Every structure is written in structure tokens, then in C-alpha cells.
């Protein structure tokens, strides 16, 4: 009787493992997919090398004048480099740049503890940033106090203006949106209908018309002689507009909270505001973090629209730089630069929201 | 026992200001009073301010002569027409760019959404890159990029890029042949209408027959044949009553043909690509929302992959996709107002821009513009809600 000795396992067919196997299952699984892959590779071959050449290989980085770029076929980053200060600070006087740097540096310093796990006063710090910090930034930017030279808002511009518009929009639209969402779900008929009309009105019109309204109509609404800053008017328009979108996001979160949670609040004898603030809103807001961040991203992109009413945000100031007779014909470089800045901010925000969502996922995940 | 229950002493009534009904009434009255006061102040201020600045009120200005030309009009227009007419011209241009944009964005979005889920690694990566890049760059920047950096620097008409002697691309726009309908072309249109009605009847008949007997009839092929074949036949019989007006290069400009002006082209490209990225995400989420069990069940029942997709997956995915699609259509329509940044004569540009500047009647002009967008928004969402209700899942 022979003893059965099992044959050692054969390795899998070479075509289904390793690089070949990966290629076969991911790129060439069928004739159609083969065709698609080859087409895609051809497309990449057509577009990517020229773009890389233009951005990195053939581009010019050194020099201070237009002549530095005369010999190259690639991008002329000198243009961006020369204008960098203006793109960042607008027409702010150069001697006062430190105030903007200080303002944003302070913000970063204040925000760092929010990312430290062991820091226990995150809520208080966040409230401080939302409520007190705006005044700090206002004083630093406009001056006039503590011996700082006053700088008119018409001189603000560039990336710092974009960030200010977005920051004010966020800080104002979140609380306003929450109030509107609560109003829309209220049992009081008048409160409810006022909120519905408000939300639907702002969501039904384009932001441009809102900005037009705030620039041409707002002065008519105010008592004679009140001079309202153009930037402030734009900020009011943006905040009202975004709060309507924010309200709908928050409403979605409120609707997702089971009725038992509301009843539990009532059973404990909590007042409306107590049960909202301690039970409902924290859960609802956590549920809709992705929606809130999406609204922030939309708001950040929408700040570019202020160029239409003559404010110089990042895009507007880059657009204006194209008109400089010394630097005609470098619009692509400018747009690519602006696009990458906006892209980094927006993409970063969306990734941060994903991380936050994952971290806060406590109960509702299945 | 029962008696004792009845004798429970009544709870002390809460003070008047603690009763929920009283409170809610109080707050609502306060709100109404606040809004009323706010509205009244604004109204008074506006009246006073307008009087001070000598601005007239009312919509009488709509009958005045406009006195400016418009770059592109779908209906006849020149300087002698009224401000009312400029409103109409702008409105039509807005509707044109919005409907074309919705058409292209939907196509791009569906292709890219499906591509992002493709098993093909390279295709799905390309779709991801497309979505992540264009979603995160402001639309206004994209519009300006296409207009100022791509289309404006194109060569003039004399050096235009020529394709086949029919298409001319230059900084004046894309010129192409326009159709000239000859005598008797109406018969072709009648034939098309008849064919469409006939194929609807065929489809109905086929469905009835399948329900009654189980026999299938390929009504798709029949109706395609009808819709294409019948008009074609009439067209040939009537002696081909259609000719093309080709664009011709003249000394300074092009003559004849149709033109897509660069303003429209830039706006259209940017709107379609930008909104397409959002629609792609909606499509992806819709398809992912259909559980894989549905596919397996369909296969287990013996449905072929194409039928599975058509009868099982897509109807369920659409339920998730349609509401998101609706808001993207609304966004696209509202975003078309960015036209004003590059000078495409849409409603905002010609009416809230030029007309307002010339007449100074800010309140009326802005109110009319906003009313138009509100009406468009409400119409689209009403239609989409109706459609959504039709296809929605009916539970028990």
C-alpha cells in the first residue's frame, strides 16, 4: 500500500498574479476594456507630458522682468513671483503687511490646540475664535486703534480679502442658518412661514443678483446720509445668501433625529432651548458635517463673485494684473496659480471633513 | 377608587407668561411687528432716497427706447427697441445657455459618474481626477479661463482654424453652416410628427400584447425605423427641400452660416464641465445606493446583464439621482448669470447691468430679475418633483 503524499500546491497561473495579473484584471479584462484602456493611455500621453513640460521643465522661475521669460516656451512663473505680494495682500500698504501676517499667524496658533487630542477646552476655544477673534482681525486690518495706521477697506484685497470674506460668511451663516432651520421646523405658523419664505427666496436667486442688490439697492434702503462700506454690504449679501443654504443642511440633520430624542428632552423637563442645545443640535450637526463643509466650500468658491461689484479678491486682483502693459499675455499662468490656490483650500476642506466625519462616527454607523 | 381619582386637586395654573400658547402668540406678534417695522422703515427710506435723487418709480421705463445694441439676440433687436424688449432678449439668452448647459452637463455627468465606478483602473482614475479638479475650482475662474485664456487669443477671422471648409474657428467664434429650409419642408416635419405618434401607438400595443400573451415585440426597432424612415422618405419624395448656407470668409469678417460667439462658447464649456463634475457624483452615489443583491437576484432570475441594468438597476438608482440632479439643474441655471463677467448678454448682463445703469431704476430692475430666476427655479423644481413622485418607491 503506497502512502498518499499530497502534491505540493502549484503556484497560481502567472497571468493571474503580480503585475501581469493586475494588468489583466484591471486594464485588459475584455476587448472593450482593452480598447478603453489604450484610448485612455493615448489621452494621457497626449496631455500629461506637454503640461509637465509647460509647468516645470520649460518654465522660467528666476528673474524680475518680462525679458527673463522671452526665451522660454513654458510657463513664466516670474510674473506670479513679481506680483506675489499684491496677490496676497491686495493694495495694503507694504509697511503694514505685518498686521495681516500677524492676524493669520494668530489664527493658526489659536487653531493648533483644536487638533491636539489631549486639549480639553476645544469648545471654549472654538467659541473664542468665532466670537472674539473677528474683532481682533478687524482691528488689525482696519487700524485706527492702538496707534495703528488706518487702512480703508478699498485697499484690502488678494488672498487675504478672499479669506476674510469666507471667514465672515462662515461665522455669520452657521448661527443664522441654525436659527432659520429651527424656525422652519417650529410649530408656530408665522415663525415657520417667515423662515420658509426667507429660505426659498435666497435659494431661488443667483448670488450675483444678491450682490447687485446689496451694491445698488441697499444704499436706497438706509436713511439718508448713512454711508455703508462696500465690503460690508457684500458681506451682508453673502451671509444672508449662504445662511439659507446652511438652514436646509441643518434642517436635514434635525429631521434625521428620532422623535424619541425630543421626547426624552421633554420628559427630563428641559426647556426648548435646553433640549435643543444639549440633546438635539449636537447630534444633528454631527450628522450633517459633510453638508456643512460642502456649504463652506461653495461659499469659499463663491467669494470670487465679488469681483463683479468691484472688490479685489484673489481672482479679481489676478485678472487685473493681466492688464499691466509690462506683463501682457501671461493670463494662463495667472489662472493656473489662482486655480491651484482655490483647489488646495477646497480639496483640503473636503478631506478634513471626511476625517472629521470618521472621527465623530459614534452611534449612527451600521 | 374612581371618585378619589376625580378629587385630585387641580394643578395650580402656571402664570400667564409661562403658558406655551401665550408665549408662542407673544413671540409671533413680536416677529410680525418687527418685520412690519423693518419693512416700513425700508419703504420710507427708499421713497425718500429716490425722491432726493430724482429717480422715478414704476414700470413705465419699459416702454422707453433702449438706445443700445446687444451682441447676440435670438429675436430681432436694435437700438430703437424698448427696454421691455431688452428684458426679453436677455431672458431668451439666459434660457438658451441654461438649456444647452443642462443638456451637455447631463451627458458629461452620466459618462463620468459611470466611468468613476468602472472596473477599468485607468478609466476610473481619470474620472476621479476630472471630478476632483473641476469641482474644487470656482466656476467664475473657469469661465474666465476659457474666455480670456483660450478663446480670445485665437487668431482673427482671416487666420481662423478651418475644418473641411465648413467650420471656421477664430476669435469671433465658431462659424458653421446653417440650414436653409426650402419649400415643402413642412411636409417632412408633418411626417416626423406622424411617425412619433405612430411609434407611441406601437409601443402601447406591444406592451398590451406582452401583458396579455407574454410575447415580446421589439417596438424599439420599429419606432426607430418609423421616426427616421418616414421623414427621410418624404424628404426624398419632396425633392430634398433643404440646403446649407456655408460661412464664407470676406475681407474683414465671415458672412453667412451660423455662429457660436466666444462668450457663449466659453460660458457653455465652463458650465457643462463644472456642473458635469457634480452630476457625476450624484450618478455615482445613485448607482452605489442600489445594493449588489439586486443584481444577483436579477441574474438568478435569468435576466441578461443589459436587461438587469435597464429594468432593475437604473430605475432604482434614478430615485436617488433625480433629486440631486434637480438641484444641479437649478444651480446651473442660476450660475449662468456669471455670464455678465465675460459679456455674454444674458438677463443679468443686459437688464440688471446695462438697463439698470441707463435708467437708474434699481428697485424695479432688480426685482424683475430676481422674480425671473425665482420663477425658473420654482418651475424646474415643480416639474422635477412631479417626475420624482412618479418614479418614487411606493411602500405598502
Automatic annotation (TrEMBL), chain A:
<keyword id="KW-0812">Transmembrane</keyword>
<feature type="transmembrane region" description="Helical">
    <location>
        <begin position="160"/>
        <end position="183"/>
    </location>
</feature>
<protein>
    <submittedName>
        <fullName>Amino acid ABC transporter permease</fullName>
    </submittedName>
</protein>
<feature type="transmembrane region" description="Helical">
    <location>
        <begin position="305"/>
        <end position="322"/>
    </location>
</feature>
<dbReference type="InterPro" id="IPR010065">
    <property type="entry name" value="AA_ABC_transptr_permease_3TM"/>
</dbReference>
<keyword id="KW-0813">Transport</keyword>
<feature type="domain" description="ABC transmembrane type-1">
    <location>
        <begin position="159"/>
        <end position="353"/>
    </location>
</feature>
<feature type="transmembrane region" description="Helical">
    <location>
        <begin position="34"/>
        <end position="56"/>
    </location>
</feature>
<keyword id="KW-0472">Membrane</keyword>
<feature type="transmembrane region" description="Helical">
    <location>
        <begin position="272"/>
        <end position="293"/>
    </location>
</feature>
<dbReference type="GO" id="GO:0006865">
    <property type="term" value="P:amino acid transport"/>
</dbReference>
<dbReference type="InterPro" id="IPR035906">
    <property type="entry name" value="MetI-like_sf"/>
</dbReference>
<feature type="transmembrane region" description="Helical">
    <location>
        <begin position="204"/>
        <end position="222"/>
    </location>
</feature>
<comment type="similarity">
    <text>Belongs to the binding-protein-dependent transport system permease family. HisMQ subfamily.</text>
</comment>
<dbReference type="Pfam" id="PF00528">
    <property type="entry name" value="BPD_transp_1"/>
</dbReference>
<feature type="transmembrane region" description="Helical">
    <location>
        <begin position="97"/>
        <end position="116"/>
    </location>
</feature>
<dbReference type="InterPro" id="IPR000515">
    <property type="entry name" value="MetI-like"/>
</dbReference>
<feature type="transmembrane region" description="Helical">
    <location>
        <begin position="125"/>
        <end position="148"/>
    </location>
</feature>
<keyword id="KW-1133">Transmembrane helix</keyword>
<dbReference type="GO" id="GO:0022857">
    <property type="term" value="F:transmembrane transporter activity"/>
</dbReference>
<dbReference type="GO" id="GO:0043190">
    <property type="term" value="C:ATP-binding cassette (ABC) transporter complex"/>
</dbReference>
<keyword id="KW-1003">Cell membrane</keyword>
From TrEMBL, chain B:
<keyword id="KW-0813">Transport</keyword>
<comment type="similarity">
    <text>Belongs to the binding-protein-dependent transport system permease family. HisMQ subfamily.</text>
</comment>
<feature type="transmembrane region" description="Helical">
    <location>
        <begin position="365"/>
        <end position="387"/>
    </location>
</feature>
<dbReference type="InterPro" id="IPR010065">
    <property type="entry name" value="AA_ABC_transptr_permease_3TM"/>
</dbReference>
<feature type="transmembrane region" description="Helical">
    <location>
        <begin position="127"/>
        <end position="149"/>
    </location>
</feature>
<keyword id="KW-1133">Transmembrane helix</keyword>
<dbReference type="InterPro" id="IPR000515">
    <property type="entry name" value="MetI-like"/>
</dbReference>
<dbReference type="GO" id="GO:0006865">
    <property type="term" value="P:amino acid transport"/>
</dbReference>
<feature type="transmembrane region" description="Helical">
    <location>
        <begin position="25"/>
        <end position="43"/>
    </location>
</feature>
<keyword id="KW-0472">Membrane</keyword>
<keyword id="KW-1003">Cell membrane</keyword>
<dbReference type="InterPro" id="IPR035906">
    <property type="entry name" value="MetI-like_sf"/>
</dbReference>
<feature type="transmembrane region" description="Helical">
    <location>
        <begin position="259"/>
        <end position="280"/>
    </location>
</feature>
<dbReference type="GO" id="GO:0043190">
    <property type="term" value="C:ATP-binding cassette (ABC) transporter complex"/>
</dbReference>
<feature type="domain" description="ABC transmembrane type-1">
    <location>
        <begin position="91"/>
        <end position="384"/>
    </location>
</feature>
<dbReference type="GO" id="GO:0022857">
    <property type="term" value="F:transmembrane transporter activity"/>
</dbReference>
<feature type="transmembrane region" description="Helical">
    <location>
        <begin position="87"/>
        <end position="115"/>
    </location>
</feature>
<protein>
    <submittedName>
        <fullName>Amino acid ABC transporter permease</fullName>
    </submittedName>
</protein>
<keyword id="KW-0812">Transmembrane</keyword>
<dbReference type="InterPro" id="IPR043429">
    <property type="entry name" value="ArtM/GltK/GlnP/TcyL/YhdX-like"/>
</dbReference>
<feature type="transmembrane region" description="Helical">
    <location>
        <begin position="218"/>
        <end position="239"/>
    </location>
</feature>
<dbReference type="Pfam" id="PF00528">
    <property type="entry name" value="BPD_transp_1"/>
</dbReference>
Amino acid at each position: 500500500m503506497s502512502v498518499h503524499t499530497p502534491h505540493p500546491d502549484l503556484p497560481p497561473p502567472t497571468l493571474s498574479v503580480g503585475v501581469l495579473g493586475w494588468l489583466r484584471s484591471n486594464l485588459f479584462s475584455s476587448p472593450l476594456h482593452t480598447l478603453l484602456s489604450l484610448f485612455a493611455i493615448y489621452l494621457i500621453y497626449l496631455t500629461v507630458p506637454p503640461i509637465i513640460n509647460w509647468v516645470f521643465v520649460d518654465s522660467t522661475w528666476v528673474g524680475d522682468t518680462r525679458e527673463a521669460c522671452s526665451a522660454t516656451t513654458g510657463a513664466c512663473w516670474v510674473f506670479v513671483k513679481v506680483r506675489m505680494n499684491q496677490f496676497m495682500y491686495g493694495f495694503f500698504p507694504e509697511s503694514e503687511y505685518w498686521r495681516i501676517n500677524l492676524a493669520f499667524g494668530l489664527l493658526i496658533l489659536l487653531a493648533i490646540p483644536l487638533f491636539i487630542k489631549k486639549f480639553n477646552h476645544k469648545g471654549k476655544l472654538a467659541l473664542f475664535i468665532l466670537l472674539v477673534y473677528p474683532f481682533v482681525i478687524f482691528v488689525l486690518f482696519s487700524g485706527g486703534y492702538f496707534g495703528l495706521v488706518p487702512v480703508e477697506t478699498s485697499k484690502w484685497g488678494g488672498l487675504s480679502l478672499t479669506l476674510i470674506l469666507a471667514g465672515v460668511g462662515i461665522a455669520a451663516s452657521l448661527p443664522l442658518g441654525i436659527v432659520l432651520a429651527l424656525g422652519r421646523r417650529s410649530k408656530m405658523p408665522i415663525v415657520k412661514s417667515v423662515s420658509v419664505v426667507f429660505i426659498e427666496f435666497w435659494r431661488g436667486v443667483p448670488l450675483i443678483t444678491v450682490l447687485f442688490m446689496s451694491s445698488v439697492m441697499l444704499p436706497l434702503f438706509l436713511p439718508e446720509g448713512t454711508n455703508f462700506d462696500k465690503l460690508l454690504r457684500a458681506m451682508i449679501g453673502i451671509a444672508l445668501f449662504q445662511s439659507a443654504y446652511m438652514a436646509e443642511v441643518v434642517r436635514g440633520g434635525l429631521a434625521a433625529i428620532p422623535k424619541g430624542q425630543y421626547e426624552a428632552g421633554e420628559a427630563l423637563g428641559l426647556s426648548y432651548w435646553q433640549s435643543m442645545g444639549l440633546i438635539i443640535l449636537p447630534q444633528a450637526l454631527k450628522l450633517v458635517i459633510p453638508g456643512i463643509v460642502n456649504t463652506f466650500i461653495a461659499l469659499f468658491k463663491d467669494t470670487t463673485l465679488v469681483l463683479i461689484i468691484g472688490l479685489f479678491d484673489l481672482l479679481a486682483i489676478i485678472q487685473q494684473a493681466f492688464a499691466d502693459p509690462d506683463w501682457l499675455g501671461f493670463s494662463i499662468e495667472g489662472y493656473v496659480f489662482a486655480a491651484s490656490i482655490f483647489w488646495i483650500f477646497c480639496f483640503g476642506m473636503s478631506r478634513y471633513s471626511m476625517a472629521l466625519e470618521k472621527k465623530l462616527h459614534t452611534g449612527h454607523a451600521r | 377608587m374612581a371618585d378619589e381619582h376625580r378629587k385630585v386637586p387641580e394643578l395650580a395654573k402656571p402664570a400667564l407668561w409661562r403658558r406655551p400658547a401665550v408665549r408662542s402668540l407673544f413671540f409671533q406678534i413680536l416677529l410680525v411687528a418687527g418685520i412690519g417695522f423693518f419693512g416700513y422703515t425700508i419703504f420710507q427710506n427708499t421713497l425718500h432716497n429716490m425722491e432726493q435723487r430724482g429717480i422715478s418709480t414704476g414700470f413705465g421705463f419699459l416702454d422707453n427706447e433702449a438706445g443700445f445694441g446687444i451682441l447676440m439676440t435670438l429675436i430681432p433687436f436694435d437700438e430703437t427697441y424698448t427696454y421691455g424688449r431688452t428684458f426679453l432678449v436677455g431672458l431668451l439668452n439666459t434660457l438658451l445657455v441654461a438649456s444647452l448647459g443642462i443638456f451637455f452637463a447631463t451627458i458629461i455627468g452620466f459618462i463620468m459618474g459611470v466611468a468613476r465606478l468602472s472596473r477599468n483602473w485607468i478609466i476610473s482614475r481619470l474620472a476621479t481626477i476630472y471630478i476632483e479638479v473641476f469641482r474644487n475650482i470656482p466656476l467664475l475662474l473657469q469661465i474666465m479661463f476659457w474666455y480670456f485664456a483660450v478663446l480670445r487669443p485665437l487668431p482673427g477671422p482671416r487666420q481662423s482654424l478651418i475644418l473641411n471648409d465648413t467650420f471656421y474657428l477664430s476669435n469671433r467664434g465658431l462659424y458653421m453652416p446653417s440650414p436653409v429650409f426650402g419649400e415643402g419642408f413642412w411636409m417632412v416635419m408633418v411626417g416626423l410628427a406622424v411617425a412619433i405618434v405612430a411609434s407611441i401607438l406601437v409601443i402601447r400595443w406591444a406592451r398590451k400584447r406582452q401583458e396579455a400573451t407574454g410575447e415580446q415585440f421589439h417596438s424599439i426597432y420599429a419606432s426607430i425605423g418609423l421616426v427616421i424612415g418616414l421623414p427621410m422618405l418624404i424628404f426624398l419624395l419632396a425633392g430634398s427641400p433643404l440646403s446649407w448656407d456655408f460661412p464664407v470668409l470676406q475681407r474683414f469678417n465671415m458672412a453667412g452660416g451660423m455662429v457660436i460667439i466666444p462668450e457663449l462658447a466659453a460660458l457653455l464649456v465652463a458650465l457643462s464641465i463644472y456642473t458635469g463634475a457634480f452630476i457625476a457624483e450624484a450618478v455615482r452615489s445613485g448607482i452605489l445606493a442600489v445594493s449588489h443583491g439586486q443584481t444577483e437576484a436579477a441574474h438568478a432570475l435569468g435576466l441578461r446583464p443589459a436587461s438587469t441594468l435597464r429594468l432593475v438597476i437604473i430605475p432604482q438608482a434614478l430615485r436617488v439621482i433625480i433629486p440631486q440632479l434637480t438641484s444641479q439643474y437649478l444651480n446651473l441655471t442660476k450660475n449662468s448669470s456669471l455670464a455678465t463677467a465675460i459679456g455674454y448678454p444674458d438677463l443679468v448682463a443686459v437688464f440688471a447691468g446695462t438697463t439698470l445703469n441707463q435708467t437708474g431704476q434699481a428697485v424695479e430692475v432688480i426685482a424683475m430679475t430676481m422674480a425671473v430666476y425665482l420663477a425658473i427655479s420654482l418651475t424646474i423644481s415643480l416639474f422635477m418633483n412631479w417626475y420624482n413622485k412618479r418614479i418614487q418607491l411606493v411602500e405598502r
